[in-house]
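Lecture 7 notes: from sequence to structure.
We start with the chain below.
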Amino acid sequence: MSDKKRILTGDRPSGALHIGHYAGSLKNRVALQDEYEQFILVADVQALTDNAENPQKVRDAVKEVALDYLAVGIDPAKSTVFIQSMIPQIAELTVFYLNLVTVARLARNPTVKNEIQQKGFGESVPAGFFTYPVSQAADITAFGAHIVPVGADQVPMIEQTCEIVDAFNRIYGENTLVRPKAVVPESGGRLPGTDGTAKMSKSLGNGIYLSDGPDEIVKKVKSMYTDPNHLRVEDPGQVEGNPVFTYLDQFGQDTAKIAEMKAHYTRGGLGDMTVKKYLIEVMQEFLLPIRTRREEFAKDPAYVQKMLIDGTARAEAEAAKTLAAVKRAMRIDYF
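Predicted structure tokens for the same chain:
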């Protein structure tokens, strides 16, 4: 076992990952995989909570996510990439943890409330979706994660995990489970969608994907939301909350040029299309090497599969240790 602190990250497989995932977490995972013992979860169980009738979609998305990981620089020798549903210990831990949280507490979780509203479940919320914070607590504690990088909107999920950890350790034994810490990027871990909404997502159709080709990038950037009050080139424009400038800040390398464009746009005389043309250049330069690596890895499906098989085996071995410790603490290690 490594003496490094453990970090758990992951993604819900619903298709290829978008640049919001990169800005919020992927680049950090690449940077942190030398510093931490990193576990990366492909959260297919979570994806099934609202895709139970379309399992093939989730199955196909697992491969897409794995390719994106490799394309951005995740190294299987440094990071353990595994499939959530292939770790049976997570499901067993979830059952035990369900006894440590009330229905009322789950209903108050603001992340769950927001996502229920976004997905339009109404009164027909799948129980698996409603109780996902408990499953996520099992994801985190199964591997003894000390740190969980998340977007600002996911902090309540980690808070609920800490409550479950505290309850378990109080009832069954001190220090059985590791209490995790949420780490939020300075940006908040989110990029706005191309339509100006707060969150980029596949379901909203407002994302630029790591696998997007040159023509698709041009199309998406040209259609991006800007400042609705910037009606004429000579009008002063708003930089704050303008997704085009948010993306430039995130992906552009020429900070002096971007600062000058912001000043010009603010005082008037700089058209939206001029700014978008520069963003197109920036995004093409950024995505080209990622897309090229992705295409190369796609030619070697056996390598991608091996990464998932080996990573899942390592993850299950660690989860088995945690489950054994949990059962001992609960006095249900009968044999």
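Points to note: The mean pLDDT is 92. The radius of gyration is 22 Å.
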